[in-house]
Amino acid sequence: MSMKTYSMAIRDVIAEEMRRDERVFIMGEDIEILGGVFGCTKDLYKEFGVDRVRNTPISEAGMIGAGVGAASAGMRPIVELMYMDFTLVAADQIINQAAKTRYVFGGKAEIPLVIRGQQGIGRGNAATHSQSLETLFMHIPGLKIACPSTGADAAGLLRTAIRDNNPVLFFEHKALYPVKFEVPDDPDFMIPFGKADIKRQGKDVTIVASLLYVSRALEAAEELKKMNIDAEVIDPRTLVPLDMETIIESVKKTGRLVVAHEAHKTAGWGAEVASQVTENAFKYLDAPPFRLGAKACPLPFNLELESAVVPSVNDIVNAAKAVCYQR
Amino acid sequence: MISKEKKRWIYQTMNQIRWFELKAQSLFEQNKLRGSVHLYAGEEAVAAGVCALLRDEDYITSTHRGHGHCIAKGARLDFAMAELMGKATGYCKGRSGSMHIADFTKGNLGANAIVGGGIPIATGAALAAKLKGTDQVAVSFFGDGASNEGTFHESLNMAAVWKLPIVFVCENNGFGISVPVSQSTSVENISVRSVGYNMPGITVDGNDVYAVYEAAEAAISRAKAGDGPTLIECKTYRHLGHWTGDPQVYRSKSEVDDWKENKDPIKKFREKLIEEGTFTADELDAIEHAAIKEADEAAEFAIQSPEPDPAHVMDDVFYVDKEVVQ
């Protein structure tokens, strides 16, 4: 184990995978000498050269399309997007091309492509640089979606993503980059997709959260403990595939569900989780599922306004109390 | 100098495409084939002239009007026709229909139903060739309409900056469905857009297969030499509607008849082959008759083929590693 930041955990996995497999390369904006705006490719060009650590023009559709093409032609590209908000500039290449290629071509194509980058609140980057867009892509069959909440999860999930023969959208969180975590040193450390992690065991309420909201849910759990509410915190880690089994097993035990995410509440992935729990474990529920997500409002620039749009730790505490009928 | 064998291949391929397309149209009219079907008749010299220079390991991406490129890149007519009919024996098991036919074993990375969608993909295939250090070349076929999409401009720029082994082949057939190029496009010759991306650009008569071949030969040599991309514009014309069923109110019958009678790429090539003494009329008739027979047999194969089993409709959404259970 080593203590390292979330961003260095990501960087080290990219380096190890590039060392291990010469088909792996990375391209994106400002990733070479600058090491990426958030430092996730720092100094990689020194070891691997500028062909494999490739600066691109500011052409998101072009670079993601090139990723699809390079993957079709036997390479294993990683495309770094400076902000995952820019997936929208390249939506056709992700949704109409990468996601559908294997299926429409009768299963004869493999698209080992990772599209990764950061998203979310924390820096006051305003409406087009602070969104949480994972739900949007979860709706599209053919894309795998990973959302790591710790350095170890980032490392294990990213390695799995790079070795996967499907397109993977890898959503990192900008507020987690500087946070230090214990990360396994094993260069083959992998976390399987579709395996949720129970971040805290509890018996009274199940809180499902991802990315930045895992730490907020854990913080809320400590508050709840003072009120004699024992919360279980589950991080699905990948939204596609989604480990509903672990979540449903937990709800069968606790009888109560809160889903907390930074993505907008309206039709957010929490709605999918709540709906599946309702469909499959209705008789175990002692209260209606409770969803927390960003308000139906663009993310504003002012940091206080930004905080006002997304759920707080206190909102999670209150939600858990509400489903436990303690409010 | 184009060898006699290569000329035979080109003439045969153009005829295969023509008769495949006419057969598809006839099946459509008989309600035996459905969907969005965009036929390539009249533009055969482009696909055949370019693909005559490509090997199986070279890549292409194609368009919604893609049957010609698929056939010229080595697709079998029977599997292609079966795909048009959505049959289990089709190239893509009936999932793609007309607009997404691919055959990776022949370097065909797919027709693409999104205008301009294939251009960055071909660019990525060229990037892969460069990273692998092979002498593979990628060709992206697209229409005049795609030259107004962002992906065209992004891809040309990237390919030029990175000196990628790619040839951009624009098939300018004069219309984006009903809109003439003059109403949609800022330049008369799309090849001049190459100037903005610091690469050679050339406009050729896309119905003259020799002109297409020569331009493609120079561009492919340039690509293989590491000198980067080329934009080739082939001026051509589609004999049929944008899709089967297009009322074609935007052009006159006399205009269409003129292209069919006087500028047909197969007729022109045939006349040249006879005039230069490469083949006799009888030899060329035999090639044409073989293509007609092949198209008929492809249709029969497709009609007789089974429908795909809905039990497998969810297969292949994802690649599943058989050794790793997730």
Protein traits:
heterodimer, A: 327 residues, alpha/beta, Rossmann fold, 2 domains, 7-stranded mixed β-sheet, 5-stranded mixed β-sheet, 14 strands, B: 326 residues, 5-stranded parallel β-sheet, two-stranded antiparallel sheet, 11 helices, 7 strands, 43% helix
Structural overview:
The complex is a heterodimer of chains A (327) and B (326). Chain A is of the alpha/beta class. Chain A has helices at 6-20, 44-52, 60-72, 91-98, 101-104, 134-138, 151-163, 212-226, 244-254, 269-281, 303-309, 313-323, and strands spanning 2-5, 24-28, 53-55, 76-81, 114-119, 144-146, 168-173, 180-183, 197-200, 205-209, 231-235, 238-240, 257-264, 290-294. In chain A, strands 3-2-4-5-7-6-12 form a 7-stranded mixed beta sheet, with helices on both faces. A 5-stranded mixed beta sheet of chain A has the order 9-11-10-13-14, sandwiched between helices. Chain A has a two-stranded antiparallel sheet with strand order 1-8. In chain A, helix 1 (6-20) runs parallel beside helix 7 (151-163). The longest helix of chain A has 15 residues, at 6-20. The radius of gyration of chain A is 19 Å and the shape is globular. The model of chain A has no long low-confidence stretch (mean pLDDT 98). Chain B is globular, with a radius of gyration of 19 Å. By secondary structure, chain B is an alpha/beta fold. Chain B starts with a helix and ends in a 22-residue tail after the last helix. The longest helix of chain B is centred in the first third of the chain and has 26 residues, at 4-29. Chain B contains 11 helices and 7 strands. The model of chain B has no long low-confidence stretch (mean pLDDT 96). In chain B, the strands form 2 sheets. In chain B, strands 1-2-3-7-6 form a 5-stranded parallel beta sheet, sandwiched between helices.
